[in-house]
Amino acid sequence: MIVRCTTVHECDLRFVSDKHRQATAALVATSLKRKLKDSRTIYTPSDIMRDVKHNFGCTIHYSKAWKARELALLSIRGSTEEAYYILPAYYYELERMNPSTKTHIQTDENNHFVYLFMAVGACIRGFRSSMRPVIAVDATHLKSKYKGVMFVANAFDGNRNIYPLAFGIGDLETDASWHWFFTKLHEAFGECPNLVIIFYRNVSIENAAKSYSIAEFDCHFHKIKRKEHVAQYLEEAGLHKWSRAHMDGHRYNVMTTNITESINSVLRFARMLPVVHLIGEIVNLLVKWFTERRELALNCTTTLYPNFGEKKLRNRLEDAARMNVVKVNNAQFNVLDCDMDGLVDLTNNSCSCRKFQLEQLPCKHVVAVCHFLKVNVYTKASRYYTRKTWMDAYSDSIYLVQPHGMWDISEDVRSRVVLPPMARVMPGR
Fold first, then answer.
1. CB distance 167 to 270 below 8 Å
2. Can you name the residues that pair with 151 across neighbouring β-strands?
């Protein structure tokens, strides 16, 4: 206990110093834990040195500030190795809180971590019932102690929002790791008719890939042929694999993996965390998105998604008002457009411009025909763009995993050992 405190110092000013031995790394760490609880906070050792000087009037070295930061992070998150030890228990609790969730941890013969997979049950059900059958996949590098690669599979809802489906972690971006991830993805989501998987992109073929008609495609591809090796590579790969005009199935206007790159950007700070905390940040993100979008869908008053389907149809209605419709027979109509005429066939739900077939949303020619016949244009839009589908996609709730002390883990899960991966850890400072 403190018996007496003298607030006025009478030491010779020659011996007064702003360096205090009591300002240990552990003490400094205690004072800054609050600022480091949010993984998105960038708080460098230089920032710590500045704040300690400003708040306490003492000077610490960079090495002490760096050590204090590491101690604070260790206190908040635990060690990187511990994150692998508790991974089976965390997954068990995640599945218990969220039924139908699919998880898997792959280890080698010595129980060292190799691969990880996660698909939350609400996302699985929402995709199978309400999402367009288009999946974009990509990978991004992790920045934690043991590095590695995170694999991401996303869909795109009718309102142009990212709909996360599955996440995986592996050591490297190799054929073996991709094969493992796609295998688990198939096991989680099952057979999906007419599924399209989009993988990477190249800006140089963007115009040709996005062409709706064969004529438009040929015009752009003719320019690409000026570089013979590029054109040869694209032709050998198969035009139907990357070109909208030559594709047999439906991509619903999803042409690139930009949606996956966007979620990688959202998780750019979380990618520095130990594996369990990274998964926790992903679940937090899913909870936030599902809650916000469920509220938006409940408050929506339009028939279609407001930011995509409804907005596009209204813009096309303005164009359609200037067009003339000529009836060919009871099912076919010629739409005279100063830009490009269209032949609409209502029996086959097709238009010669091909936007109607590929987007599954009425093009301006179909809108003109519906207006001519006084037919409800919404009936020609795919159900994937409707408000009802939007509500159904986010109808299930996602629950966070409770704090560690509240876990109720079975004995067989407790006994499972997962050691850190056998990766070469480069020396630090």
1. no
2. 139, 168
